[in-house]
Amino acid sequence: VEDPGDIGSVKNSVTSDDAKVQKRSFTKISPSAKLLIPEHGLDASSLQASGPYGTLLKGDVLAAIKSEKASSRSSSHTEKTSPSFHPQTSPAVSQGSNLELSDSFEDLPNTQIRKAIARRLLELKQTAPHLYLSSKKHNIKVSVNDIVIKAVAVALKNVPEANSYWNVETEEIVLFDAIDISIAVATEKGLMTPIVRNADQKSISAISMEVKELAERAGKLAPHEFQGGTFSISNLGMFPVDQFCAIINTPLAGILVVGRGNQVVELVIGRNEIPAVVTKMNLTLSADHRVFEGKVGCAFFSALCSNFRDI
């Protein structure tokens, strides 16, 4: 530097940056979050993680982006303020309103038609007593497979560690941001896996309609409709198959297979232990042990069985 006195400030700057890196608030990061950080020029050390085990999720990065945009809009609005600008007071303000106008604002001119529409809508809302009715369509035929998809999706939401994969390069567990269920479907071209995106947020009837539509187009799906997913399900319950095992579709960490339902006689709790005929089906989970350690696997199955009991 030209001035020796500036050396101290340079040293302080470097020390400050090192401190920021050391104070990073997260220990793991999801793939989508990792892509968003450099794309939007964010400072990773300032991001707060909300995921399990200190994992930085996509939602954490999006929240930071939203906060930064709001901050920039606020500063931009302040810069536009001009002391020589004298806004006109609207009639509503001049008639005794307590509304205080800021020093600067921008008027957006409206057409006469839009003004008339606005007045008419306000008049209708104020003068007509509104009655709101809604209806839900019932008697929608859903399959056991649709119920399984929903039950699995909710179980993954309750046990987020099961909705993850093993990153071979970093040798770490990475949590998925969304719950996207891949369904194994046999087609003339071979086995396809159409995906029900955000299955935990959809009703069973909505899942049913989407699965039917995807199955009909199974041989003609676009790549994004069958590539990806966070968890797999393979159901052979419509065939005389009681139980089977499936190969994990890596990099996913698990695939749940469903056998057919069989009627058995057993003592039913809550009926004074009176024998009754009940229908039971076998579920088998093929899991990547690097992700599904014993505790995670048991927690997932516990949540899954609870969902089936109270569907």
Automatic annotation (TrEMBL):
* Feature: compositional bias, Polar residues: 85-97
UniProt biased composition (Basic and acidic residues):
68-80
- Which positions fall inside the Peripheral subunit-binding (PSBD) domain? 28-65
UniProt feature coiled coil, ranges: none
Provide a GO biological process annotation: pyruvate decarboxylation to acetyl-CoA
**InterPro entries found in the cross-reference section:** 2-oxoacid_DH_actylTfrase, CAT-like_dom_sf, E2/Pdx1, E3-bd_dom_sf, PSBD
GO cellular component terms given for this protein: mitochondrion; pyruvate dehydrogenase complex
Q: Which Pfam families match?
A: 2-oxoacid_dh, E3_binding
Residue ranges of the region described as Disordered: 1-23, 68-97
Highest taxon above the source species: Eukaryota
The molecular function terms in GO held by this entry are: acyltransferase activity
The record ties this protein, via PANTHER family, to:
DIHYDROLIPOAMIDE ACETYL/SUCCINYL-TRANSFERASE-RELATED (PTHR23151), DIHYDROLIPOYLLYSINE-RESIDUE ACETYLTRANSFERASE COMPONENT OF PYRUVATE DEHYDROGENASE COMPLEX, MITOCHONDRIAL-RELATED (PTHR23151:SF90)
The record's comment on protein family reads: Belongs to the 2-oxoacid dehydrogenase family.
Protein name as catalogued: Peripheral subunit-binding (PSBD) domain-containing protein
Species of origin reads: Citrus clementina (Clementine)
